[in-house]
Amino acid sequence: MTGVMEALKQHATSVAPTPTVLPGSTPEYQEAGDVGNRTLWVVFVIMLLSSIAFYGMAFRVPVQKRMFHILTAFITTFAMISYFAMAVNDGVGYNKITIKHTQKHFPDTFQTIYREVYWARYVDWSLTTPLLLLDLCLLAGLPGANILVAVVADVIMILTGLFAAFTVEEGPKWGWYAMACIAYLVVIYQLAFNGRGVVKGKDAKTATFFSAIAGFTLVLWTVYPIIWGIADGSRNLNVDGEIVSYAVLDVLAKPVFGFWLLFTHDAMSETASVEGFWSNGLSKEGAIRVGDDDEGA
């Protein structure tokens, strides 16, 4: 009898106990912490000060030469508004992700994750990146048709990125991501191929400057989708890390880009002058035209 009881005890201890708390029963919230929130406020201040500086630089030159100044000031102004919205928690939503955990001896369990998505960032990018592209395209002297293609491709890139950020299913999410990358390749083609081809017809200083600043911009823009894939895409980077990564890129791609563009542009002897509607409005004759000083009114 004793042997039978011992056998029953050994058999009972070989079976894993049923868990009293199922994993995944409590939702996980992936949100910004103190580091992320402080970073948002710091970048807001940087964008604010940069905007003031760019508007001040614009008023120092004649209206015919303010086009790059105004476009660049608008870039940091929109970014400033976006970062303020994110800092006060107004431009934020949640993407609900449900992860299935398959168990061998127990029923499957499900883990629910709510990750913050800063949709205000995509609103910012949809406005600022076309303006930034316009800066580069006008610097190179690209035709209107090429500018339109580059800007539309850029907007498609941002919108598909936004759709991907809020998509739950893995397949469609990476499908949107692939569309965004394809649109980005169109932007690269317009700047790196068509832009370099057109700017060769200008003076050597302008051609060299365009190659440098366009290359700088494309390198930065290439890092954005990499960060997205690590952060929103695979969730291997926490929200604080995502905020800091995008903050560094945004500061380089907007204020640093802007100061570089405007200081170099103002120092160049042959700067673009825009007449017609830009300078004189509808009351004066003339069309919107970009040309050198000696080709002005």
Helix content: 55-70%
Shape: globular
By DSSP, the count of extended strands is 5
Query: Which stretches of 5+ consecutive residues score pLDDT under 50?
Result: none
* Radius of gyration computed on alpha carbons: 27 Å
Order of helices and strands: HEHHEEHHHHHEHE
- Assess the beta-strand content as a share of residues: 5-15%
Strand order of the largest sheet: 1-3-2
Number of DSSP helices? 9
Largest sheet: 3 strands, mixed
End-to-end distance = 114 Å
Give the integer mean of the pLDDT values. 83
- Which secondary-structure class do the elements indicate? mainly alpha
How would you describe the overall organization of this protein?
With 297 residues, this protein is mainly alpha-helical. It has 9 helices and 5 strands, in the order αβααββαααααβαβ. The strands form 2 sheets. The chain has a 3-stranded mixed beta sheet with strand order 1-3-2, with no helix packed on it. Strands 4-5 form a two-stranded antiparallel sheet. A hairpin with a 7-residue loop joins β2 and β3. α2 runs parallel beside α8, α4 runs parallel beside α6 (170-199) and α7 (204-233) packs antiparallel against α8 (239-267). The model has no long low-confidence stretch (mean pLDDT 83).
In short:
A hairpin with a 7-residue loop joins β2 (93-101) and β3.
List the helices and strands and how they pair.
Blueprint: H1 2-13, E1 28-30, H2 34-58, H3 67-87, E2 93-101, E3 109-117, H4 119-140, H5 144-166, H6 170-199, H7 204-233, H8 239-267, E4 273-275, H9 277-280, E5 289-291
Parallel strand pairs: 1-3
Antiparallel strand pairs: 2-3, 4-5
Helix pairs in contact: 2-3, 2-8, 3-4, 3-8, 4-5, 4-6, 5-6, 6-7, 7-8
